[in-house]
Design goal:
Layout (H helix, E strand, L loop, with lengths): L3 H11 L15 H18 L8 H4 L2 H14 L5 H11 L6 H8 L16 H6 L2 H11 L8 E2 L2 E2 L6 E6 L2 E6 L23 E6 L2 E6 L9 E8 L3 H9 L7 E5 L4 H4 L7 H10 L4 E5 L12 E6 L16 E5 L4 E4 L3 H6 L14 H11 L4 H12 L1
């Protein structure tokens, strides 16, 4: 499953923080054991003063983060990294925004189809040529910064190679120059789509991201009445009662980090997929997240500001006409402006939003700290 965890493996490799070709080598194999041992030896070379000494600040610069975004887009990775990469960059004193993702997505082609964006899993992706082939293609098209420092040296040419065992010895060999399964991964000259499939939506409900790499063109625009739920189980119950056999936009506010620690909304994907397959026009809008599980149903997620922070998604009422337009980058409630501005945000009882100690602690933390954007602005103002 090419969700957040495996997307992160890809990112660490294309950003130069893994040994080349190691992202998707299975555990409990001789090759993985050899790579684990070599990784331990290699990190000691990097941290001790000497010829190989490479502090992480030399690796993670602006070019490395751009390469990470390009890799995420080219492989159809998890939208959670539209949060994670921004937060990582801020720690390094680098300002990334959703606009950067949006602009890069317009020019980076989609080179992989891995579940949930395709039928193959990450093992199939690896067998078909994997990240080595993707990096080779992106380099050939000038879509990656090659003037970077990695843990193995300069440039990304080493990352077009793959690890192998030869007579029990770990070596690196040239990776494939052509796809071994064009239904899973392709070179940059024959992409599955001309863009990376992550777009930013704007409108009177706030800003959101949507991953369209698995959404057919005919489903990328949905205009339908809102059905508001404050818990994903409420929507599933409505589906079981037969109340959702129609066009609608499921709106789930109060799912964000401050409200309840931002749980995954994976349960919604199968239900909405069933309804879409039955011919209904459906979409999801939420200030929560769906990780890499956002599949063939349009899902505008990470809406910000989130409802508990005063976000306008909290103003939506059942029956409001909602427009989700991925090609045009629009997310809006078609409510008269005067009425929309006059509406108040009534916070529901969030006691049902219990997702375990970790989520509760995260929710409490997020309610009492500023956003990454505010924190970065404050930091840079202090430095100035």
């Amino acid at each position: 499953f090419y969700g957040t965890a495996n997307s992160n493996q890809m990112l660490m490799e294309i950003m130069g923080l893994h040994l080349p070709g190691t992202a998707f080598i299975n555990p409990h194999t001789p090759l993985r054991e050899a790579l684990t041992r070599e990784s331990a030896r290699h990190v000691l070379r990097l941290v001790h003063q000497g010829e190989r000494y490479t502090p992480i600040a030399q690796v993670l610069d602006e070019r490395a983060f751009v390469n990470g975004i390009v890799g995420l887009l080219a492989t159809g990775g998890s939208t959670n990294h539209t949060l994670h990469l921004i937060a990582m960059a801020r720690v390094a004193g680098i300002v990334l925004t959703w606009d950067d993702f949006d602009e890069l997505s317009a020019v980076v082609p989609l080179l992989a189809r891995v579940y949930p964006n395709g039928q193959a899993d990450v093992n199939g992706f690896q067998a078909a040529g994997g990240l080595a082939l993707v990096i080779r293609g992106l380099l050939a098209r000038g879509l990656l910064h090659d003037d970077v420092t990695t843990i193995v040296g300069q440039g990304l040419e080493d990352y077009t190679r793959e690890p192998a065992l030869r007579e029990g010895k770990l070596v690196w060999i040239d990776g494939p120059t052509e796809s071994l399964d064009a239904s899973v991964v392709r070179g940059a000259g024959e992409p599955f789509a001309p863009d990376g499939g992550i777009k930013v939506l704007d409108g009177n409900m706030g800003r959101a991201v949507i991953k369209t790499s698995a959404v057919k063109a005919e489903h990328q625009v949905v205009q339908a009445p809102a059905r508001v739920f404050h818990h994903q189980d409420d929507m599933l119950a409505a589906f079981k009662r037969g109340e959702l056999e129609r066009d609608f936009v499921a709106v789930l506010p109060y799912q964000g980090p401050a409200a309840c620690g931002m749980p995954e909304l994976h349960k919604l994907t199968p239900t909405l997929t069933v309804l879409q397959d039955r011919g209904f026009h459906v979409a999801l809008v939420t200030d929560g997240r769906m990780s890499g599980a956002s599949g063939k149903v349009p899902a505008a997620i990470h809406v910000c500001p989130e409802a508990l922070k005063g976000g306008a998604i909290g103003k939506v009422r059942d029956g409001d006409m909602i427009r989700v337009d991925a090609p045009a980058g629009i997310l809006t409630a078609l409510v008269p402006q005067a009425e929309w501005e006059a509406r108040t945000i009534d916070v529901p009882d969030l006691s049902r939003h219990r997702h375990g100690v970790g989520r509760d602690l995260f929710g409490n933390f997020r309610r009492n700290v500023s956003t990454a954007e505010e924190g970065a602005c404050t930091l840079f103002a202090d430095e100035a």
